[in-house]
Amino acid sequence: MSYTTVSNVAGMFPTFKRGTPQQSPPDTLIQIYIDDVAGDVDAVLERRFSGSIGGSPYNGSFTAWIGALSIDAQNVLERINRYGAAAQLGQTLASFGVTAAREIAQDCDARYGELLAALNARDKSGHPTAGGLYDYLFDSMAQTETPRAALEGIGGGDQPRGQTPADTGSSQVFGKFDPRGT
To answer: Residue 120: which residues within 8 A CB-CB, separation 6 or more?
Structure first.
């Protein structure tokens, strides 16, 4: 699933003309760029927010979940998708000799990296942060990344205050530092 359109991506390059027989790259290649970036966004959504999608594992489409999302959340996904695809389009246009496209591509790539890292709850070095900038848009209960991602839990956000890891039969690897005891 894509979160943006070919028109939105191509529109970021004022000198790029669409709809002519000589159009290069063609819309089909731009759509591949969009789908490629959408796959990256979907992977982040699956890893970070699968618990708020309804507890069901990712089935290849976030279509049903997207229609429950707020307009702000949909705009965030569109912006990330647009900047990522525009970075790829700009690199392609630059390889064709469009010099101004290189600067736009670099700017789009930097913005894409920042937005995806914020959605992914990662710092500039790729290390996990305590919470992502967009947690409130997608999953208000998310606080930190869970150490057991395969179980799709929310680290700390779903555990009652008085409960210790020992109460649930969990491994004490993470619980040994719990100030409430193990």
So the answer is: 44, 47, 48, 132
Tokens, residue 155:
């680290």
Which residues, other chains included, contact 88 with Cβ-Cβ below 8 Å and sequence gap of 6+?
33, 36, 37, 105
The pLDDT tens digits of the residues spanning 48-86 come to: 876 665 554 445 556 566 667 788 888 999 999 999 999
Question: Residue 25 — φ and ψ, nearest 5°?
Answer: -80, 160
> How far apart, in whole angstroms, are the C-alpha atoms of residue 38 and residue 88?
13
Calculate ∠ Cα 39-18-16, nearest 5°. Answer: 85
Compute the residue count for the chain. Answer: 182
Measured between alpha carbons, how far is 112 from 101 in angstroms, rounded to an integer? 16
Distance CA(123)–CA(108), nearest Å, equals 18
